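Section 5.1 Outputs to date
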Amino acid sequence: MFELLLPKSFDNNYRGHKLALWLFGLFTLMKCVIGVNSIINGRAVMTGADGIPLDTYPVAAAQSFVALWALLGLSHIIIGALCVFALVRYRSMVPFLFALLLLQHLGGRVVVQFIPLVTTGAPPAFVVNLIQLTLLVFGLGLSLWRRR
C-alpha cells in the first residue's frame, strides 16, 4: 500500500481502481469552481454559503477578509490545476494527492476547532465540505485498492 501512495517515480501508470479517477476528477472540478467563485463572488460566498457576517465589521476589515478569501480561492485553483496535471500526465500521483488533500481538509477542520470562524445561522457550506470529505475518503481508499 505504501508503494501505491508514494511510488518510486510518478508516471501515468495508475494502479488503483478506475472509479477513484472519476472521484478525483469530480473533486478537482469542485475545487476549481469553489476557487473561481471565491474570487469572483467572494463577498456573496462569505455571507451566503459560509455565513460570515461581514456587515458587522468595519468596511476596511470586511474588504481585507474578502481579499483574503480571494487569495484562498486562488490557492484552490492552483491545487485544482495540479490535480488536473496529475489526471492528464502523472496518474500514479493520484493516491498521494488524495492523501495530501485529505490531510489538508482534516487539518482545516482542526484549525477551525481551535480558531473558530464567527458565523450566523447554519451555513450551507457544511454540506459541500461533507461531500468533499466523503469524496476524499472513498477516493483514497479506491486509489489504494490494487486492481487484479
